[in-house]
TrEMBL record:
It comes from Streptomyces alanosinicus. It comes from the Bacteria. It holds the Pfam family DoxX_2. It is a multi-pass membrane protein. This is DoxX family protein. InterPro entries: DoxX. The chain crosses the membrane at residues 6-26, 47-67, 73-91, 103-121. It is found in: Membrane. Keywords: Membrane, Transmembrane, Transmembrane helix. GO terms for cellular component: membrane.
Amino acid sequence: MDLALWITAGLLASVALLGGITKTFIPKEKLAAQHGGEWTAKAGAGFVKALGILELLAAVGLILPAALDIAPVMVPVTALCWIFLMVGAMVTHGRLGQSKLVMVNSIYLVLAAFIAGGHLAA
């Protein structure tokens, strides 16, 4: 079970890292021109960057606390926060009629729930 939690956390941290780098460092106009990034056209640049920073923090929070054994309770807390972030993403993509992206976000949500549940049950 521990190996499965590490693999899942690594996968989700990679997703969060990629999303965080993208939202933090790529101009929102360029993001808005890409499929899946249309929502950024109506969002403020600060909001998009803030989401990117939250995703970067999530990448760190899913791995480092357990790896360093410093406040490992932060891993399930981070996973629970990721769940809320994915609910928002699902609503946003759903409003834009992007059902495939809603499904992708729901998979990320399930992975985060597995991480949270696995760490809280241990």
